[in-house]
Amino acid sequence: MFSRCFAVLFGLIVIIAGGPALAGGVHWELEKTITPPEKPLDVSSSVDGSRIYVLTDGGQVRIYDQAGELTGTIPVDPDMDRISAVGMQSAGLAEKIILSGFSSGKVQELALQFAVSIDTEGSPFLGRADAPVEIVEFSDFQCPYCARVKPMTEEILRQYPDQVKVVFKNFPLSSHEHAKPAALAAMAAQNQGKFWEFHDELFAAQRELSRDKIMAIARDLDLDMNQFQRDIRSRELSRRLQKDMQDGQQAGVRGTPTIFVNGMLLEQRSPENLQKMVEEALEK
After folding, report:
1. Is 14 helix (H, G, I), strand (E, B) or coil?
2. Whole-prediction pTM value?
3. Which single residue of 57, 106, 237, 281 has CA 20 to 30 Å from 247?
């Protein structure tokens, strides 16, 4: 009954003469009005309130953001007349919508995945800056699984040299003693134009990673050691590392490596699945 009442509100144009009102001890204020092109049958929202799902009699679920802007449309069985939402993508819980039809007696569950927005400004990358497909890797230099990503991204860049851009974002795990120092060192090397060389050497030396090894890599790459050590200790690099980690947390990163293709999570980490997602992104 509650969702039915909201469905009516979404189908009407509501006019309020004044501002917020107090009626019956309840302070209320209209925040938005959404008027779908088809009659709304039912409405639900994501757990965190970031999305509104409107089921219409045209056999569609129309997805609106917090501002009331349409962000997507899903065709569904026209027999469905009820909708509810579960899960929360931002908390790592798969978001789903549950549809049911009173007359048909059917219940359907739809798994949803939404693209996330990731700030890659200033992050090191390979490929063309304006490539239509952006692969973002959140990584930890002490994570053995992260070391296996390099051949995969190298191959995808070889196959799509003009269509793909690979971006590296640091996400050092607290369980890895040398991951954070390694990340800061790689960013210090980036300041001297040698991020990718340092990146490769760190992963090659992963099993013997230590402060002394990190410094040895810097010397072997002929970095300005005075600048390198100043940068490692600088607030600027600390801020940039924290920004990478916050970007990862906001995107739902819980471990490493985590890879996104144009904001969509690569769930099965394999060359075949990565290529499939790149092809799908290029088709769009």
Report:
1. coil
2. 0.78
3. 281
Which residue reads 């965190």 in tokens?
Answer: 48
**Is pLDDT larger for residue 95 or for residue 208?**
208
Q: How far apart are CA 259 and CA 123, in angstroms?
A: 15
**What distances in angstroms separate CA 279 from CA 114, 118, 202, one per listed residue?**
18, 20, 31
Distance CA 79, CA 126 (A): 48
Residue 11 in tokens: 């189908």
- The pLDDT of residue 50: 86
CB 140 within 8 A of CB 176: yes
* Whether 257 contacts 269, CB under 8 Å: yes
Can you list the domains of the chain with their CATH numbers?
2-112 (2.40.128), 125-283 (3.40.30.10)
Two tokens, residue 177: 């003693």
Q: DSSP 3-state assignment of 227?
A: helix
Burial 5-30, CB ≥16 within 10 A → b, else e: ebbeebbeeeeeeeeeeeeeeeeeee
Report the candidate in 157, 166, 195, 130 with the shortest Cα–Cα distance to residue 260: 166
The conformation of residue 208, written as its DSSP 8-state character, comes to G
- C-alpha torsion sign, points 12, 18, 24, 27: positive
Token code pair at residue 156: 């995808």
pLDDT digits (tens, 9 = 90+) for 173-186: 999 999 999 999 99
Q: With beta carbons less than 8 A apart as the criterion, state whether 102 and 82 touch.
A: yes
18: left (phi over 0), alpha (psi -120 to 50) or beta: beta
The per-residue DSSP string of 34-94 comes to: ---SS-EEEEEE-TTSSEEEEEETTTEEEEEETTS-EEEEEE--TT--EEEEEEEGGGTEE
